[in-house]
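Record type: ASSEMBLY
Status: queued
Input:
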Amino acid sequence: MQTRAVEGAYPLRMGERTWGPFALFGNCASAAVATWCFIIGGYVSYYLPAGKGSVVMLAGILLGMFLIFLACVPMGTRYGLEAVRSTKPQLGARGSYFTLALLFFSTLGWNTLLVIFCGRAGAEILIASGLLPEAARGATQIGVGLVALVVVWLLLRGGPAALRNIGPIVAISVLLLALFIIGLIINQLGWSAIADAEPSFASGDDLLDYTIGVELLIATALSWWPYVGAMVRFSPSTRSSMFPVLAGLGIAVAVVSFIGLYSGLAVPESGGDPTTYLVELGGLTFGLPALAFIMLANIGTTMVGAYAAALAFKQDPTIDRKLPWNVATGLALGATALVLIFLSTPFFDNFGTFLAFSGVMFGPICGIQIADFYLVRRQRLDMRSLYLDGPGTAYWYTGGVNLVGFLSLAAGVGTYFALLDPITFEAAGLFKYTTASLPAAAMALVVYLVLTPLLNGKRTESLAGTGRQQGTSGASVRGARG
Amino acid sequence: MSDIHTQARDGELERRLEELSLPENQGEGLSQRDLTVLTAVTVVAPVIALLVGWNL
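Status: finished
Output:
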């Protein structure tokens, strides 16, 4: 039964929350540090030089972490909730399927990107070392990516215990490798070449470029939304989770993204990825550390992504009964394999848009979660209704959907689009003073607060106003599944 | 057989919900002090850094 609990079906007892600060930091860093850091840094290098870019990356990701932390961590540590179940109070028991779909497609996107990177790096090294001909590049990229997926699936058979044990090892290894690569880049290219390099797509409006950099990093932090709950549910305390989460998902990512920033500035055609030019500069001696980084970091991150997706699938009791753990992780990774084989090039070429959409959706979700958990419910949830569905339970609303939550999300998303086009990066005049993700989250929060008493007044009062939080619905396990 | 398993699972979930509905069996939420530290690290410090970085 304990295995079933930690694999997602049941709420966790305190004794089952076995991740200390080191395991939590290790898994956060392992989840967040991957080759997307190269792309993120590469994007920032389009708009900002090295000095400003470095500051913006650290500051921007921490600003985004404020929203992510408030939305995900206290709810996760107090009630042991992963991402999808944590949206039941705001979106309704059935409405939370919306976030299940969002989580699935988000982790699918990130995992696909990572295995594409694994495949490309593996092929680059095998071809550069003369082991394979150039003609085999396409097939090798897919083959290496598929091998990486199989490795992840095998590792995940151990469930969260495997994550707890492997995450810190992966994190420490990739952080050391990343520092080595940063040193290598500065040593080989020269700091002055990096510091003096001009961004290749600067708009001429310094403030606009500065804010685009901040926005990109806020969006990066927001894109951790699907991952955070799956990890912090194993930690018993918000306080002890704070620095592991901020350091692992925030600071570590910014520092590793410096690789992409400096590479993109000094070697613009690299797009932030140092693998190719490191091999050209120093052959396998320089290429192997980069390859080791990519393999370790991406496998570590894909593990957490697939774990979060499998956990999310199993939040529904009916699905949980029919879907063994290994099949759930297999489904999550199988979908990635299909995109890798059939759609890898269009997906890779549109990654910037994918990243921007993280800001579009997850900012407003954070907004309604913060409004609901702190300001409407005063950090008190109905434990029974989180796990049992059906009319009469606290989060059933109308037909299982909380209209207020969806209207608030729509207001937040609309605000984002009014300020920034996530595809073309065309910005409204106000954007350079506000960013887009922060006002989008704020708008969703305000609309939620305004509409809740108007549309859900009685229901919310009965839960928060009287301080009743436990067993209010009176539903039983067998009776409430509807 | 399947019914027996389902009942066992439902019983376990019922027991856990009963137990975890008590605040003393739940984890820690966000305290005022946590919020202050969080705000200092993730709002105040980054905003200051952005103001300083603008002049680089």
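Annotation: Residues 420 and 426 of chain A are 6 Å apart (CA to CA).
Annotation: Residues 275-313 of chain A form the longest helix (39 residues).
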